[in-house]
Specification:
single chain; four-stranded mixed β-sheet; 2 domains; 10 helices; alpha/beta
């Protein structure tokens, strides 16, 4: 039964891929990155599971690249990083996944051990759900813009919060985090899901919030969360005030 459900899901995904590629005028000129897929975990159970569920990893990764870019930008006329190639490896190591390098060549590894853990917890459906979600996160790192004038990637900084928060916002926006995990508490500076859920929630104020927030990194130098929030949502807001409103929403709902 598990394999049958996963097969059906992949068939639906293939149909969606065709619709996105050939029926979206703004994206007909999208330059798909060349995918160099290497299975370094051959012989492991995780490798066998991954290759059964994702029989065509190159097309699979390319399609998700398009969906990520469509979440972050309006059309191919925007300032999209020129990702020409993605070197994607499946590896028998601990962890989940990580992105390295900068456009035009980006590296992404995915752990076959994580695939095995996903399979053992909830079967093939969980593997596909998790594999797609992780891919959305890492491909966002490949295609997102970066804040300028505030230093670089270091945990606890607004630069880091933006990078990791946006990646999880894109993942959640596309349906690959459970809404049940969205709970009150924490701080918008926590990064990852805490920030990502918050940023995605702001699309209820402006459906294009994620695109505009991403683009704000080109329009505001030096960049900051407060400046970007005011740039997108109006001069009377602050990140703290929006976070407080978001917390009230979570408590009330």
């Amino acid at each position: 039964m598990k394999k049958t459900i996963a097969t059906v899901m992949l068939a639906v995904l293939s149909l969606l891929a065709m619709a996105q590629k050939w029926e979206t005028p703004d994206w007909k000129n999208f330059r798909y990155p060349t995918i160099h897929f290497l299975d370094k975990a051959k012989g492991t159970q995780g490798s066998k599971i991954y290759n059964r569920i994702v029989p065509n990893p190159k097309a699979f990764i390319q399609q998700h690249a398009l969906w990520v870019v469509q979440t972050l930008y309006w059309s191919t006329s925007d300032s999209i990083p020129n990702v020409k190639a993605i070197k994607y490896t499946l590896e028998d190591i601990e962890g989940i996944s990580a992105k390295g390098g900068q456009p035009p060549v980006v590296n992404i590894f995915y752990s076959s051990q994580w695939v095995e853990k996903s399979e053992s917890s909830e079967g093939d459906d969980k593997v596909l759900y998790e594999t797609r979600g992780v891919l959305y996160h890492e491909l966002t790192h490949a295609y997102q813009l970066e804040p300028q004038g505030i230093g670089g990637y270091q945990q606890g900084t607004e630069f880091w919060v933006f990078i990791e928060g946006m990646a999880d916002a894109v993942r959640f926006h596309n349906g690959f985090f459970p809404v049940s995990d969205r709970k009150p508490g924490g701080n918008w500076m926590d990064g990852y899901r805490k920030t990502g859920y918050f940023l995605e929630w702001l699309t209820c104020k402006d459906p294009d919030f994620l695109r505009k927030f991403n683009r704000s990194t080109l329009e505001i130098i030096p960049w900051s969360f407060d400046k970007a929030m005011q740039h997108v949502l109006g001069k009377n807001v602050t990140t703290d005030s929006l976070w407080a409103e978001y917390q009230k929403f979570l408590i009330d709902n």
